Amino acid sequence: MKAAEPMERDAKSNAPRKTGTLQEKIDIGTRLSKSAKKKHPKESKYEVYVGPPSMSRAIVAEYGSVNQTPKPFMRPAWDANKRTAFSSIVD
């Protein structure tokens, strides 16, 4: 979980700031909601998740919609920190 902290920090700083709720909801965890578990079966013994809970507002912010251009915050956080996270886990 410590390896994911830079990713969480970057996602929070990149997230749209209309009300601040999205930044507050971004977190690191090891559990998924029941509905998310059905969509994403476990692939390994240990898994860590970074991001907001399943919020439609977060999905629209990341990917955009017919009425809103995308403002990615999770993907840039992943891209910027994945190598460091993997190295930290290996160590």
Key phrases:
single chain, 91 residues, mainly alpha, two-stranded antiparallel ribbon, 5 helices
Summarize the structure.
The protein has 91 residues and is mainly alpha-helical. It contains five helices and two strands. The protein has helices at residues 5-14, 21-25, 34-39, 56-63, 74-90, and strands at residues 27-29, 49-51.
What does this structure look like?
The relative contact order is 0.23. The chain is globular. Helix 1 (5-14) runs antiparallel to helix 5. The longest helix is centred in the C-terminal third of the chain and has 17 residues, at 74-90. 51% of the residues lie in helices and 7% in strands. The protein has a two-stranded antiparallel sheet with strand order 1-2. The protein has 91 residues and is mainly α.
Indicate the radius of gyration in whole angstroms: 14 Å
- Trace the largest sheet across and list its strands: 1-2
What's the SSE pattern? HHEHEHH
Distance between the termini: 13 Å
Overall morphology: globular
* Average pLDDT, all residues: 89
What are the low-pLDDT stretches, counting only 5+ consecutive residues below 50? none
List how many beta strands DSSP finds. Answer: 2
Helical content stands at: 40-55%
Report on the biggest sheet.
2 strands, antiparallel
Strand content: 5-15%
* Secondary structural class: mainly alpha
Tally the helices: what do you get?
5
